[in-house]
Amino acid sequence: SQQGEEDPQALSIQEGENATMNCSYKTSINNLQWYRQNSGRGLVHLILIRSNEREKHSGRLRVTLDTSKKSSSLLITASRAADTASYFCATDYMRFGAGTRLTVKP
Amino acid sequence: DAGVIQSPRHEVTEMGQEVTLRCKPISGHDYLFWYRQTMMRGLELLIYFNNNVPIDDSGMPEDRFSAKMPNASFSTLKIQPSEPRDSAVYFCASSLTGENEKLFFGSGTQLSVL
């Protein structure tokens, strides 16, 4: 499969806690991207990490990439209720997995 | 910039009718993508264009689906005849430089086929 697969399917945490989501893929890639989707809306790009990078930060987001394991993780630190959304990864060819539904309880 | 613009926002039609979804990409973006999202199948890539030319249509489910991009600022996704299983949210997205770069999504068209 050319697409990424996220896990867990669903994650529920308390506000202030960290949230970690994972993405696995099967083919070699040039880059991997993470997107967020609020209910009923289009996806919004969060971060892109290239195959020669191991870690990238953007605000409260931290993404890691392990090409030897063909996996990536997205860490959201100090989560907020507004982070409640579905999170998707996409590899080359712009195909998405099923996403992780994150619920942050106030 | 207004972003990617899709119309209509909602479409309700009866089985057998023709449905046309429209998309205006961000000006200057060379790539345009059509996706379909359902609970069962997730977010599926249907087709994408580069400089108005279809590059990969392997995700188009059946001959009932067709997509065109007559110019750099407009694309359509047509379903004829429509069926209830086509009910989904259809998204259009555009990208500046390539398949592997950041996508900008429209707000989607919620299609209900009765």
Largest sheet of chain A: 5 strands, antiparallel
Quaternary status: heterodimer
Secondary structure class of chain A reads mainly beta
Cα distance spanning the termini of chain A: 37 Å
Q: Could you tell me the mean pLDDT of chain B?
A: 94
Distance between the termini of chain B: 36 Å
Helix-residue proportion of chain A: under 10%
Question: How large is the radius of gyration of chain B?
Answer: 13 Å
The largest interface is:
A-B, 21 and 21 residues
Q: Which geometry of chain A do the CA atoms define?
A: globular
In words, what does this structure look like?
The complex is a heterodimer of chains A (106) and B (114). Chain A is mainly β and 106 residues long. Chain A has strands at 5-7, 10-14, 19-24, 31-37, 44-50, 55-58, 61-66, 71-76, 85-90, 100-105. In chain A, the strands form two sheets. Chain A has a five-stranded antiparallel sheet, with no helix packed on it. In chain A, strands 2-10-9-4-5 form a five-stranded mixed sheet, with no helix packed on it. Chain B is an all-beta fold. Chain B is built from no helices and eleven strands. Chain B has strands spanning 5-7, 10-13, 19-24, 31-38, 42-50, 53-56, 65-71, 74-79, 88-95, 103-105, 109-113. In chain B, the strands form two sheets. In chain B, strands 2, 4, 5, 6, 9, 10 and 11 form a seven-stranded mixed sheet that branches. In chain B, strands 1-3-8-7 form a four-stranded antiparallel sheet, with no helix packed on it. The chains are: A mainly beta (106), B mainly beta (114). The A-B interface holds A 30-31, 33, 35, 40-45, 48, 88, 90, 92-99 and B 4, 33, 35, 42-43, 45, 48, 56, 91, 93, 95, 99-108.
